[in-house]
Structure prediction request, 155 residues.
Amino acid sequence: DDVSLSQPGVVHGTPAFMAPEQAADAKVDARCDLFSLGSVLYLMATGHLPFRSSNSLAMLRQVLDETPRPMRAFRPELPQWFENLVARLHAKKPSRRYQTAQEVADLLAHHLTALQEQGAAYQPDPAPGRLRHWLSAWAFEYTRRTSVCSQFASR
Prediction:
């Protein structure tokens, strides 16, 4: 049971990156992609999946019921604004998440601009170049991607 892969005949999606509404087989929309983005950013920033288990069912239960460990527990140098952004992306209720990828991209762009203008004075990350690189890459990618979850919802 590989929790890092989508499996045929089960639930559509990869359990490690699935939104709670997907795990519950409930109505999905583009906001489930934002939850998944939170999981990707969490993994990129910490080197750990936000939900960890040896089997898919246990992982789906965690997605539904548990809050990921704070990212700064793994990387204390991460800026608090970034941890807050990812935590909001991981909100269990879609109404509590950012509502659009554009909203997330705009927020990331705002922080990227501040990082470029203020440098290390803006945030405590000892490697701001790396953080800037993947923040801008994800902001760009998520503004141009179509919603995978919306495609499933329309089927």
